Amino acid sequence: MALDIGKWVQRIASGDARSIARAITAIERRDPAGVTLLKQLFRLSRRAQTIGVTGPPGAGKSTLVDKLAVSYRARGWRVGIVAVDASSPFTGGALLGDRVRMQRLATDTGIYIRSMSSRGHLGGLASSTCDAVTVLEAAGFEMVLIETVGVGQGEIEIASLADATLLLLVPGLGDEVQCLKAGVMEVADIFVINKADRGGVEIVEKQVTALLSLAKRKGGWQPPVLKTVATSGEGVGELQGKIEDFRSFVSQGPEAEHREREKWRARILEMLRENLLAQAVGSRLDAELVDGLALEVVERRLDPHSAVETLMHNLMK
Ligand SMILES: Nc1nc2c(ncn2[C@@H]2O[C@H](COP(=O)(O)OP(=O)(O)OP(=O)(O)O)[C@@H](O)[C@H]2O)c(=O)[nH]1
Ligand SMILES: [Mg+2]
């Protein structure tokens, strides 16, 4: 059946959940219709506030995101949730958990939940997530919560694209806190120690505070370290207060005007990079040549830099 883009756009704008779901599926599949759709949706969309929630598997991200969503909803906001790879292989039952919460929240059209797989995004996971946010913005959602497992670089990048990024930690992480500082520590605006009802909270708190005191933040924002019990909602109100504080800090900062432009600049260049690569790999790049070069690199007859030079030369011809 031929798709009427105009009708599709209209239905999304009216908030129709099935049309939104189809749009996000088209984005995930890199369906060309998805791009046509996105162009029209972008002009309709009004910027939503985005909050990235990241952290290790099972830290309580979904539970906290639900609590935040319900609370923002109670303030009259329409809230979208994008959970990237909600069914992490580490925690198994997460998918079932997501179904249960979808049932609970699905009766309210002011809340929309969507899971996206982190696998198989040719065009880049961050791009797909940004596009999904555009769809939700066009559908009138004013707040979008983005949940990612803070493991891969791509996931960390997504969380860092949000207006505010929360990093969830839990007691008993031990040495993992040390590992985390490599990538996620830098992008987190607010640190949340969840499962504060469990023992060992002070230890994580000390570790995080110690790490934070070493890093001087750009713009002078000192990321707060908060404690929550996502299951009971304890500390969630305070967390929302800090999110608000951070937002006003950013909006009053000297780089406030540039921030948005810089964000889009980086996004556009990243999209260009993805496009150029897709084009090269798709049509003009000789797969056999790449295989041959890879083999030469394996056998140490060629270094990877020279291999790329050969490919560039080949593409420019
Ligand atoms: N005791 C305690 N349990 C919690 C808390 N928050 C979440 N949990 C439980 O921890 C488990 C994992 O919670 P999720 O919200 O699914 O965690 P997640 O970080 O989204 O997990 P993945 O998406 O699979 O990485 C669930 O059984 C929750 O009920 C908390 O504050 N205290
Ligand atoms: Mg989850």
Which key phrases capture this entry?
single chain, 317 residues, alpha/beta, Rossmann fold, 2 domains, seven-stranded parallel β-sheet, 14 helices, 56% helix, binds guanosine-5'-triphosphate, binds magnesium ion
Folded structure, characterized:
This protein is of the alpha/beta class and 317 residues long. The chain folds into two domains: 5-253, P-loop containing nucleotide triphosphate hydrolases (Rossmann fold, 3-Layer(aba) Sandwich), CATH 3.40.50.300; 264-316, no CATH class. The protein is built from 14 helices and seven strands. It is globular.
How many β-strand stretches? 7
Spell out which ligands are present: guanosine-5'-triphosphate, magnesium ion
Named CATH architecture of the largest domain: 3-Layer(aba) Sandwich
Radius of gyration: 21 Å
CATH superfamily grouping of the largest domain: P-loop containing nucleotide triphosphate hydrolases
Strand order in space, largest sheet:
3-2-4-1-5-6-7
How many domains? The number is 2
Low-confidence stretches: 87-94
What's the CATH topology label of the largest domain?
Rossmann fold
Q: What is the strand content? A: 5-15%
Mean pLDDT value? 84
Q: Could you say which structural class the secondary elements and strand pairing correspond to? A: alpha/beta
> Shape, please?
globular
Helix content: 55-70%
User: How is the biggest beta sheet arranged?
Assistant: 7 strands, parallel
Helical segment count: 14
Return the CATH class of the largest domain.
Answer: Alpha Beta
List the helices and strands in order: HHHEHEHEHEHEHHEHEHHHH
Q: Span from first to last CA? A: 41 Å
